[in-house]
Recover the amino acids of this structure.
């Protein structure tokens, strides 16, 4: 009954950026067969100065540039991410703060766990509700693990908006990359680069975060599907499990086994692969995800061939706008899905 809507848009916007109560994995978007499109009117904006992770941003100037929330009534909105240390989440926070400044009268707070854990993220949801959140923007740790707390939040009247990764609980909207399609795009980039090197067969290493990080699993699904019918073999996935040494050791083992390329399904695994390849001094082909400073540096110096750039700042900005509209009753759709796009970044395109 539910499926991913597969529409990949190209959006060129490089955002590099951190996060707040504990860390978790990214579940895939589970949406209706025929999702409605969001109707939020979104204006351009000027980036606000970063606030400390977990710190509330309260009541911006009502005359802030951009659109207003509608009624001018103050609202409390929380962002809850999977962890507080990934630059990707900082980009989402930046987009939220931009929109809060534009809208005015928003009490905004960013929290999250410090490790990948459903129970810790559930505690963050409970905290937000107890502190009066009217809407929660959340990058869910897993598809099912935080549903109990989301149910309680919904019963308390809290609007649920997913950014980057969704649980299977009903929401107002989900703003994210179509991860399966993005994984296929990554595979197509790798196949082209392998062809340029004259490589037509061999084993490719695949690195993920955890087995239940669903957004990364969806990327891997798209990546593996794109290699079906070729002479390449994709190795069993190695999971980082909050320890970059797991990936670095796997790369070293892959080099010993003659792997021809490596794919990382998120920023952490991609950087760990690149660091291992750089330390070895070899010219292995690396394709990854996300555009942190560390990942872009690996692209710039030629260690990594390409990375898939998502648009987390837009997720935060548009998610905040829709959250306020949902609170005020001007956005009444439910379970909609917005694909925020992916762009292939190589050294030539930087």
């Amino acid at each position: 009954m539910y499926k991913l809507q597969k529409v990949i848009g190209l959006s060129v916007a490089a955002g590099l950026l951190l996060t707040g109560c504990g860390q978790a994995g990214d579940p895939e978007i589970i949406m209706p067969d025929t999702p409605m499109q969001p109707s939020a009117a979104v204006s351009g904006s000027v980036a606000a100065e970063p606030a400390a992770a977990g710190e509330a941003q309260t009541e911006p100037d009502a005359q802030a540039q951009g659109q207003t929330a509608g009624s001018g009534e103050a609202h409390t909105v929380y962002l809850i991410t999977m962890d507080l240390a990934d630059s990707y989440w900082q980009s989402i926070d930046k987009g939220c703060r931009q929109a809060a400044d534009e809208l005015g009268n928003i009490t905004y707070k960013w929290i999250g766990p410090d490790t990948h854990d459903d129970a810790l993220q559930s505690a963050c949801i409970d905290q937000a509700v107890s502190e009066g959140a009217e809407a929660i923007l959340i990058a869910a740790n897993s598809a099912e693990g935080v549903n109990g707390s989301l149910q309680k939040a919904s019963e308390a009247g809290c609007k649920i908006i997913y950014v980057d990764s969704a649980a299977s609980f009903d929401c107002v909207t989900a703003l994210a990359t179509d991860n399966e399609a993005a994984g296929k795009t990554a595979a197509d980039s790798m196949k082209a680069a392998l062809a340029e090197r004259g490589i037509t067969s061999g084993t490719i290493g695949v690195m993920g975060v955890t087995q239940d990080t669903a957004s990364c699993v969806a990327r891997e699904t798209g990546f593996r599907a794109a290699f079906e019918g070729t002479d390449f073999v994709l190795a069993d996935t190695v999971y980082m499990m909050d320890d970059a040494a797991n990936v670095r050791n796997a790369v070293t083992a892959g080099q010993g086994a003659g792997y021809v390329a490596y794919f990382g399904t998120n920023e952490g695994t991609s950087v760990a692969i690149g660091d291992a390849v750089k330390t070895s001094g070899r010219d292995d082909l690396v394709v990854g995800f996300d555009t942190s400073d560390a990942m872009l540096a690996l692209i710039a110096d030629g260690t990594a061939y390409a990375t898939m750039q998502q648009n987390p700042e837009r997720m935060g900005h548009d998610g905040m706008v829709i959250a306020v509209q949902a609170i005020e009753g001007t956005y009444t759709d439910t379970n909609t899905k917005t694909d925020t796009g992916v762009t292939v970044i190589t050294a030539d395109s930087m």
About this structure: The first helix runs from residue 87 to 103. The longest strand covers residues 202-208. Residues 1-20, 22-70 have pLDDT under 50 and may be disordered.
